[in-house]
Amino acid sequence: MLEPRLRLAINTMAVSIQRILADAQPSIYLYGSVTAEDYQPGWSDIDLLCFTDRPITPEQSEKLLMLRQTLVTETGLPFFRAIEGAVVCSDEFEHNTFSRLVYWGTGGQKITNQYVLDPFPRYSLLHYGKCIYGRDMKHLIPPVDFSQMLSAIRQHLLTIRQYAQETNDSLYSCGWLLDIARCLYTLRHQTLISKTNAGKWALAQRLCPEPFQMEQTLAVRQNPSEALKKPEIHSWLKTLGPSIQKFADILEKELEEHANEQMV
Fold first, then answer.
1. DSSP assignment of 197-242, as one string?
2. What is the three-class DSSP state of 139?
3. Would strands 46-52 and 83-89 be described as parallel, antiparallel, or unpaired?
């Protein structure tokens, strides 16, 4: 059950998109942590994908581009800042060739002609996505096979090795531990679960080389805004690099074991 202000923000965003794209028959999907019942204000994104039945016009794309900021100003609700996703033409999505689309991301927004829905979010959209407006368009989304998920896990490990050797005091620092736990779960079970459940599972399976770090991460995830008011949490987040790499060693070992099994 979504809390009332979050539900209001999502509905307001959907209505605003509908008004801008009234002639393009939009179909709007939610997926990710919101539909997996793992949304945590101040940490989680609100993942959204909108299909249209024709390419959006330059005028529509300009209105959509800054829609998040416009709605924050008009409503005073902060949730719009967490919305990420894209508005894409369904035919162009199906053929993976785009003329114009609007993309909202963590670092900003842009009008572009490129868009890739990676295996993990694609799986989440297919299995947990909820159409909140328009026609069901899931038939356009290619299924995700395990080889694609495996490739995504390998790429994620490379990213962890490159960017998580040292950490800062943002929530993304302890988020790496949940990402690794989810990769391990996917590797073993060939499916996807929420980040919180993945962290709890990794603890129960005694996969974490430093269990306290995962326990602390799960505690922070329960109430990120309150946690970030504490100086000791900021200090702790800055120390997580070695712990992340130790946990990544477990993931790397299981990836190697899986590769060896495939060769036998």
1. HHHHHHHHTT--SSHHHHHHHHHHHHSHHHHTT-HHHHHHHTT-HH
2. helix
3. parallel
230 DSSP β-pair partners: none
Report the 10 Å Cβ neighbour count for 232.
Answer: 8
Report whether 102 contacts 63 (CB < 8 A). Answer: no
Asked whether the predicted pLDDT for residue 249 surpasses 90, the reply is yes
Q: Name residue 44's amino acid.
A: S
Burial of 257 (0-12, 13-18, 19+ CB in 10 A): exposed
Three-class secondary structure of residue 196 per DSSP: helix
The span from the CA of 34 to the CA of 36, in Å, is 5
Residue 105 token pair: 């991301």
Overall pTM surpassing 0.90 (yes/no): yes
Place of tokens 């829609």: 67
* Residue 84 to residue 107: CA distance in whole angstroms: 10
- pLDDT greater than 80 at residue 61: yes
- Percent over 70 (pLDDT), the chain: 98
Helix, strand or coil, per DSSP, at residue 29: strand
**Cβ count within 10 A of residue 106:** 9
Q: Alpha helix (H) ranges present in 66-129?
A: 67-75, 90-95, 119-128
Amino acid (1-letter code) at residue 110: K
Residue-wise pLDDT tens digits, 104-159: 999 999 999 999 999 999 999 999 999 999 999 999 999 999 999 999 999 999 99
**Sheet of 83-89, strands arranged across:** 108-112, 101-105, 83-89, 46-52, 27-31, 130-133
